[in-house]
Design brief:
Elements lengths: L15 E6 L4 H13 L5 E4 L22 H19 L4 E6 L2 E2 L4 H16 L36 E5 L3 E10 L31 E10 L4 E5 H10 L7 H11 L4 E5 L4 E2 L29 H9 L13
Parallel strand pairs: 1-2, 1-3, 5-9
Antiparallel strand pairs: 3-8, 4-10, 5-8, 6-7, 7-9
Helix pairs in contact: 1-6, 2-4
């Protein structure tokens, strides 16, 4: 497997995995710890910033805080702190997730396929033609140019936007993935300006994902940052004039930040997974599924099955 071996470690080929959640949401951390143990993943847990605890010297002067956006400001400051932590500690790469992140138990295999495609995309000469003119094998060598590959995901990226709620791009590269959801299970945030299937049904074949350079994306369920990316993001953060995901998306679109994203997304939010009954008496599970419907199998739903060594035929899935 060569360069893809690091993806099978406890941090998925990144130097660390950071999860942030508000201190009062300890219950969410407990669930994530169980899911991480089931997947043999090692998380670094950091408290998110509470609205009233944003320090004066951390305030983003251009950030819109009218209309109840103080929570968005605190969220942005939390991520700025994570970027600065990377810089101070020379962390070469970090996967940064929300506290309710969810993934498929086969995440390492999924990321191995994505890594090859992402490395090929970032090494791709756009003058050679559109990547969709051919469909390469996932076995094609990643990072085969003159420069040595120092990351299993390639060298030339600032952000890998692995957990989003909608993404579209300029240049895109399809790759085979048996775990890719059927079209009806794709998830895109309905309130955005993105289409429900950003690339159209005809561009993504069944059992296939697309990796793209990001032109427009939303939500930060999970994203990886290189040290180079952290330096750029932190140095530009004083300019942040929109919610963090939209600001980050704009920087990606401008080319200032080099961003790569899979579609459909590989990590999701678990907010729609619950056996809790709403105040109106409705079972939340009966409501429209959110991002987790793109996962064939949720680690949060199947943590016990995985830890008990049950085979995939005994896992609880969203489709056959």
């Amino acid at each position: 497997m060569g360069l893809l071996n690091p993806i099978y470690n406890s941090t998925l080929g990144f130097q660390t995995i950071i999860s942030t959640e508000l201190p009062e949401r300890a219950d969410g951390k407990d669930v994530l710890v169980i899911a991480a143990n089931a997947s043999n993943l090692e998380f670094q847990f950091r408290n998110g910033v509470q609205d009233e605890k944003v320090r004066a010297n951390e305030r983003l002067l251009n950030f819109p805080i009218s209309g109840g956006n103080k929570g968005n400001l605190a969220y942005a400051v939390t991520h700025v702190r994570n970027w600065k932590l990377m810089i101070e500690n020379r962390i070469t790469s970090a996967l940064i997730t929300e506290g309710d992140v969810d993934w498929d138990p086969r995440i390492r295999d999924q990321l191995s396929n994505f890594a090859t495609a992402a490395a090929n995309l970032t090494n791709f000469n756009s003058n050679a033609g559109h990547p969709l003119d051919y469909r390469p094998s996932v076995d094609s060598s990643a990072g085969s140019g003159k420069n040595p590959t120092i990351s299993p995901y390639g060298n030339d990226w600032d952000i890998l936007w692995l957990g989003n709620c909608g993404s579209e791009g300029e240049v895109y590269y399809p790759y085979p993935d048996e775990t890719a959801p059927p079209y009806q299970n794709e998830f895109e945030f309905i309130g955005s300006q993105l289409g429900a299937t950003p690339f159209g049904d005809h561009d993504r074949l069944p059992k296939e994902r697309i990796v793209t350079t990001v032109r427009n994306a939303l939500c930060t369920y999970a994203y990886a940052v290189s040290l180079r990316g952290a330096i750029k993001l932190a140095s530009l953060s004083h300019e942040m004039d929109d919610t963090m995901d939209r600001w980050m998306s704009n920087k990606c679109a401008s080319g200032i930040i080099k961003c790569v994203s899979p579609w459909p997304q590989l990590l999701c939010s678990s907010r729609g997974i619950s056996d809790v009954v709403d105040d109106d008496g409705e079972d939340k599970d009966q409501k429209e599924a959110l991002c987790e419907r793109t996962l064939q199998y949720s680690i949060r739903v199947n943590a016990e099955n995985v830890m008990e060594g049950k085979g995939i035929d005994e896992w609880i899935g969203n489709w056959d």
